[in-house]
Amino acid sequence: MNATINDLGSLRDALRDFAAARNWQPFHTPKNLAMAMIVEAAELVEHFQWDTPEESLAPSPEKLAAIRDEVADTLIYLVELADTLDIDLIAAARDKIVKNALKYPAP
Q1: What is the pLDDT of residues 10-42, one digit of tens each?
Q2: 59 to each of 42, 62, 67, 104, how far by Cα in Å?
């Protein structure tokens, strides 16, 4: 595994290596990756399900560690999905911010 992961490109490359070492590529279809990402996002939501807004802003250290893991799982599947579909996540986000600024202009 790539020991130096410090940007989306190196994360993508590390995830490619990780999946290849386990021969997971046949299972990493857009459908499967999108479904897995949603499952992880749902697990993330579970940590906040019954919290008040105030409680959600100040999770315990143990809960924050669990939240961190679910955020990472969701990100990993998102990066793998984008990689599979050859989507540049930074460019896509930049373009979406521009679209959102037009759709929701600042007052």
Answers
A1: 999 999 999 999 999 999 999 999 999 999 999
A2: 18, 8, 9, 31
86 in the Ramachandran plot: left (φ > 0), alpha (ψ -120 to 50) or beta? left
Q: The dihedral of CA 72, 76, 78, 79: what is its sign?
A: positive
d(CA 68, CA 74): 10
83 neighbors 15 (Cβ within 8 angstroms): yes
Query: pLDDT for 34-93, tens place per residue?
Result: 999 999 999 999 999 999 999 999 999 999 999 999 999 999 999 999 999 999 999 999
Q: Cα torsion at 35, 64, 47, 4 (round to 10°)?
A: 0
The whole-number pLDDT of residue 1 equals 53
* Claim: this prediction has a pTM higher than 0.70: yes
Domains annotated on the chain, with CATH = 8-103 (1.10.287.1080)
